[in-house]
Prior knowledge:
By secondary structure, this protein is an all-alpha fold. Helix content is 62%, strand content 0%.
Amino acid sequence: MWEFPTTSYNYARTLRFLIFGMYIAPLATRWNAYLERHFPLRPLVQPAPTEPIPLESVTIDSDTPVFAPEVTAPALPPIDKLVLARRLAWDQLFMAPISFIVFLASMAVMEGKPFTTWYRIENYLIPILLTNYKVWPIIQVAQFLWIPLKYRVALSGVLNVIWNIYLSWQTMNASKVA
């Protein structure tokens, strides 16, 4: 027979991660919108002319048969790889450290141990960031290229379940700091 560990599940820890996820999601939504606006991967489409066509200039030749032209979707312009690299750099070098500092501080405060915040940042930020740089850039490139903006935060939320398991494991001992 298999024997399972007798340690009990920490519901309070799960609740803290849930609360953190709920208040970081609006920030992530705004951040993704910011990246989309300031680092567009494709050139913006030129607007249609605003000048009306005078009806007097339109002629109809009744002797010519009218055929509907074949409609094809315009080809999307290629993705600017330099802009993609800049977008990724902004996300990983600016937002990732900030969000992890906020995460570590939030966990310390929600555990009732705000005095451990600096200890957690000193001891856990760099290892978390280094692991982040091994995982999230690939995910972010895929999201930037193929996932529409309105679905990006939701997909990140799903992927964050796995990421949060890592963060929970990485910071588990931090909650034991007196």
